[in-house]
Write the structure tokens for this entry.
Amino acid sequence: MSNTSAFETSTQPSADQIRSFSQISRRIVQWFKQEQSVFAFKVFARASAALLTGYIAAASLACLLTVVLPMPRLESTLTANMLSFLFYAVAIIYAFCVRKTWHAWRDLGLVSLFFFGLLQICGQ
Amino acid sequence: MKETFFRTLSWLHTWAGLLVCWVLLLIFFAGSLSYFRHEITLWNEPELHQGVYQDYQANTLENQLDKNQQYIETHSPAAVQRWMIDFPTERKPFQSVSWQLPPEKGQRRGKTEEHVALADGSSMISEVRESRGGNFFYRLHFDLHYMSAITARYIVGVCTMFMLIALISGIVIHKRIFKDLFSFRRDKGTRSWLDAHNVSSVIALPYHLMITYTGLITLMLMYIPWTVNTAYSGDNQAFLKELNPARQTEKAAGISAPQMQLSQLLPQVKAAWGDTPIKQVTVSYPKDQNSQVTFYQNTGKDVTDEANILIFNGVNGELKYASPHDASGASATYDTMMSLHTARFAAPLLRILFFFCGLLGCAMIATGTLMWAIRIRQKQQKRLDKGDKPSLGLRLVEGLNFMFILGLPLGTVAFFYANRLLATHFSGRSEWEIHSFFIALVAMGVWAFWGRSRRQWQMALILIGSLYCALPVLNAFTSPSNLIDNIQSHQWPLVGFDLLAVIFGCAMLFASNRLTLIAKSPVARPALNKTHVKADKTRRSELTSQSSLEEAKS
């Protein structure tokens, strides 16, 4: 961050600044290439997909069920709500088990969108 | 995540369990204690230990209601929001009247004052020491403390979800679930820890799954409110009204009206319920035009959490609402789930089983974290042999283990000691009882900072064990009746409390004793026969001894 502010203040960056900037960026790239940090990044990506997108997917499925289930609305709300934690648990485990990291985001996102779309259609 | 599904779930099990294990331990521990919420509350109010014990008397109800109503009318302040008359039940074996004052500024609910009747009917006890009793542990297990209840419930919810994931993944990675139920290899280092973890998890597995899932369900409307939003287009009140039609929405009219005699309603109650015992009678907004009288049935052993009630108009005695006899499928399921979690239906033996299962849950979490600490230590063994300091992670894990596994029992016993030793009229006493719980917990943390060796575990266990063993003595000196009196007067909740304290204490002393034995002869003794671990603490003692063995080897 300090580098960017340095660029803004001086119109002509000195050779030193350019060198330090390239050093820092090289170090960042190196850090990302380390096995450990790649793993850390993967864990973060999957955990956030699980907690966030998984929640959205589970919640939208539960909402869909409240609308679709052929019961009085109190019943369907309770049923869907009670099942929602099961959906959430499945979504979380899926996010960690799918083969490629970004697929966790993609699949859970698509599932959420699908259920949300259905909810919009059925909700009318 | 990892190469195979199996290894991924194994990884997930480790981390989902470990990230929140200490909070989970606190929740499980406090939750298990809250099975005995009323019993603990009773123990914490020694003023009620003599002369109040009585059975439910169905034939003098009319007389009792009249007498209590008259008492409330003469003794309560004019502006009260609610009267309550409690009849003796199996778990609260005394009769009492109470009233709720209007809430002060910034409070959601007004304070409740309770007066308890002496069994011979001669007078009422109004001076009972201020104590949260068992309600503290009950609240602690989902509201935590020193923070807003809402924040705490979200934290607890996230932790519970972690627990659910850990359970599911634990089952999947557990290949030989049946065989492991019967195997406990003693004195085999980490292997024994793993066995203990497996046994404590598998024996009570249905319970663990049930309590975790129903725990989420009890607060589900907070965690996933979107379904209500969808079905009721955001009208939360409409949903709550449908969920619980007896929910009072009327406010006080502010116009005074004569309050009818409660005993005049009894024929209507008898017509609806027959001779089923009544648990409580409440009057909302007494002497107001909108006054409302509610009769609560003692649901006893029914697996239900919903109150079976009759609501009457408090001015003219007209029946306004009666709980329906049959609920629909979904609501019945919901009700059953809630009641499985709270176990209000459980008779003493079943309650003890639930409590025991809860302690097995504590054992499951504790063994898991202890095993983790040992594994980290093994990984660092080479470095440690060279005389290096253990890594920060290891020290943190070991310290937190020491703090929570020993600190929670110590905090609890500190809570009970504070209850009896603080001055009765000390203004902040109920707060200070709670502070002493946390002070003891933190004290264990500080102790862990200085040393967490086998020797320290042993000393801490002796300390806590003796404190527990001395509880009946404390009770004898600071309450009007001791253990023997209580047995003679059939006050089983109090007897049970004392006995359980002694059992706990002895188990801890036994554990510390095992630590000494192993310290003296680190050679593994031949296993006598298959050890079926009887109580959680005994199991923990086995475990502790294993850890010492581990250390003795190193």
Q: What stands out?
A: The first strand of chain B starts at residue 82 and ends at 86. Residues 49 and 481 of chain B are 7 Å apart (CA to CA).
